[in-house]
Amino acid sequence: MSDNINFEISPRSFTRVLVAVDEDDSHSSIRAFNYAVTTAKRLNAPLGIVSILEVEDFNIFDTLSPEVMKQRRSQVTDDLARYVNKARSFGVKEIQAFTGEGKPADIIINDILPEFNPDLLVCGSKTKPVNERKKIFIGSQASAMAQNAPCSVIVVR
Amino acid sequence: MSDNINFEISPRSFTRVLVAVDEDDSHSSIRAFNYAVTTAKRLNAPLGIVSILEVEDFNIFDTLSPEVMKQRRSQVTDDLARYVNKARSFGVKEIQAFTGEGKPADIIINDILPEFNPDLLVCGSKTKPVNERKKIFIGSQASAMAQNAPCSVIVVR
């Protein structure tokens, strides 16, 4: 027998929950969101909701068009407001919303986590092709967050 | 506003929990284990505990020595029995133990998940160098499970 597992069990829970919702994958986001609000309500924990505008998903013309950018930004903001309202109706008391632009995993890890300081990050697992060579990255952003975030990460499926 | 987030919140929980403990990283494993037993007890859910003998971690002489293999196998089995006893003492009622040999993510995804059929896989995040070129894979197995498992995955830190 090894002595290194000679420990007492300490019940383990979380105190601040951040959920990442994708602007372009509602199916995966809704699963993650359902789990996050259920958990935040049960633990009476503050809930952060973040939605990142995935700039690298755009083609070059879209990226350069101020009109398209404005429209996408507006949709992210509107969707986020609806998520916040849903969480509040469900019974979560303390809610903060965050937006950003770029690669979701990078922005969330570098900018949002230090600001909101959650001990649990909740995300869905996106399953669509994301680059022009048609290579399918299944949940690449979720996987990057699971690997690199300093806090616990749950990928909800 | 987008219509695709026009949904009702369904409270989301889990019914079968599998926790992966590393034979050679007790620190990371204990965090994951604490979370898994807390969750399984709260939900009155069956708990699976799996420990994989990481064969690729061995050098070629160790791999070829039946004595060393026997000793490592014996330690995995003993450690697993201790985890099972701890979970039982904590109040988890239904517990199953699993072992295997190879790359943890591959064995767990291909062999253990289909057998135990959890809807939540709990793992720690190992932070030591694992190959001979000294490249540090931080939580590479956890990340591989988060990306490729068909069920929800939580990486506990």
Automatic annotation (TrEMBL), chains A, B:
<comment type="similarity">
    <text>Belongs to the universal stress protein A family.</text>
</comment>
<feature type="domain" description="UspA">
    <location>
        <begin position="14"/>
        <end position="157"/>
    </location>
</feature>
<dbReference type="Pfam" id="PF00582">
    <property type="entry name" value="Usp"/>
</dbReference>
<dbReference type="InterPro" id="IPR006015">
    <property type="entry name" value="Universal_stress_UspA"/>
</dbReference>
<dbReference type="InterPro" id="IPR014729">
    <property type="entry name" value="Rossmann-like_a/b/a_fold"/>
</dbReference>
<protein>
    <submittedName>
        <fullName>Universal stress protein</fullName>
    </submittedName>
</protein>
<dbReference type="InterPro" id="IPR006016">
    <property type="entry name" value="UspA"/>
</dbReference>
